[in-house]
Amino acid sequence: MRELLERKKGLRRTILIVDDEYIEREMLGAMLSDSYSIMYAENGALALEMIKRDKLLLSLIILDLHMPEMDGYSLLELIRSDSELRRIPVIVLTSERGAEAKSLRLGAADFITKPYDMPEVIMARVSHAIELAEDTVIIHETERDALTGLFNKEFFFEYGKRLDQQNGNAPMDALVLDINRFRIVNELYGKNYGDHILKKLGSFIHELVQYTGGLACRSDSNCFCLSLPHSDDLAAKLPGYVARINEFLDDRKITVRIGVYSDDGSGLDMERRFDRARLACRKLRNTYETGFDFYNAELHSRELHSERLISDIDKALAEKQFRVYYQPKYRISGGKPVLTSAEALVRWFHPEFGMVSPGEFISLFESNGLIQLLDRYVWNEAASQIRKWRDSFGVDLPVSVNVSRVDIFDPQLGDTLFNIAESNGLTTDKLLLEITESAYTDNSQQIIDTVSSLRERGFRIEMDDFGCGYSSLNMLTSLPIDALKLDMNFIRNICTNQKDHRLVAIMIEIARLLEVPVIAEGVETEEQMLLLRELGCDIIQGYYFSKPLPSEEFDKLLAKEIREGNYDHN
Ligand code: C2E
Ligand code: CA
Ligand code: CA
Questions:
Q1: Are residues 193 and 290 in the same domain?
Q2: Is 149 in the pocket of ligand 1 (CB under 6 A)?
Q3: In sequence order, what DSSP letters do the residues of 331-395 get, joined into one string?
């Protein structure tokens, strides 16, 4: 009985009752309509039309054997011989002795005798026939996954969508279940063992959808989709499911991840529900334990945005949507500040999103390596800009460019930079290379090698964001660098926070020890500038002097500083 109640809450299956007697049709329909959606046909011809039209929707046909026009036997034969229709189980209605054997021979799943038995008996026969039909492997193989006996993906989605319609889009939760590192399981333990695991998982899933009244498929080699009637306390149930999975698999090295989209009743179609569950599942791809996670809308929109930026980068490079801004650096160690170099900072003028700041895309492009394309573009732009300034103003203003941690691993890095300088008629000391301190601590030997060879070719290296990367003093003294650039976060509160003040003083001491100049960036006020000068800081970059400027505006600044004698000719 509990099974039946569970079913009632679950998906409503659809049954077609074919009987020419109005009263009998209605009586039977009334008995079943609490738990099923009922369709009626009053003769065989009409029934056949409906069956063909709704073949994916129908879970059961209840068929009277005696009818005018096309009788039940002929219709049964037709259904059973049609490869697309024969997955639908048929229960025959009969009052005749002897008809049973013949109808079973023709492939009927069961029979109900007239006058009708007790309603419970009829209910039991109906639900049994449906279950059996959904469970057996006799079902047409194109609808089934041969290994697990679950639906295949195509049928699952087609059938699920029909059920959605039938159920007035009652909320259905979507679960995507994936086996962690299944390829490795297959490789290490053999394909047979892999198949064995898939079958076990298949039978757990089977049990679960039977219990909850949902449906499931194997959608890819090691991935399953489950569509379950919405449950408000799914999060509370999932640990139990996970425990049961572990019990079924009985092998601690096999773990699964489950991505869940909990249907809030917003009426998303089935495919979209599963897209979201899949996203939630993908988030878990680096876990080693069996676990689950729920889809989260905010995360989703962020991911979509990131994917969009990734897919747009090629076009953006080709159409020069990226523009390089220049922020001046001033030497303050002498009396009055003089313009000594600039930092190239990229901006993206996206046709749809407007100006996108590097904070939004640099680490994204670092995570997939695309940063290399962008950096190259920026280096080229910066070099040709230095050249333009030489041509217009007769000065070679050095520009520092950011070199991402990803670039460090490119064996061509030195050649690339060298060619960029050379093709613009520049010596290599005009390109300053900013490399963030954390890149040093992450992979010190590689970076020491790369940076040493860059310096041999004449490039100068500035260690960016110094103070955040936890370099050891010991390591610092062996590093090949030409300048330390203090991390902005220390500068922000330098005038108010005693600790930051002390830290900056110490970092400047370290630079003295290494005999390299110190650059402070993020300097916004005169007070900060004066304090830094007092502490022995050599070069300042920040809004106090100027924000990063597009090249036309930087031209004006450069012209003015040259005119007024504030240009560092050293
Ligand atoms: P970063 O290299 O530390 O660059 C300094 C950042 O501080 C820049 O942000 C700059 O606009 C900002 N800034 C400068 N002065 C001030 C100030 O006085 N106050 C405040 N609040 N901020 C100031 P931006 O341009 O948004 O760049 C952010 C980060 O993106 C950069 O940090 C750098 O790590 C990265 N980036 C920018 N352009 C490139 C590039 O072409 N290649 C690579 N790999 N990374 C880049
Ligand atoms: Ca920088
Ligand atoms: Ca920095």
A1: yes
A2: no
A3: E-SSSS-EEEEEEEEEEEEETTTEEE-HHHHHHHHHHHSTHHHHHHHHHHHHHHHHHHHHHHHS-
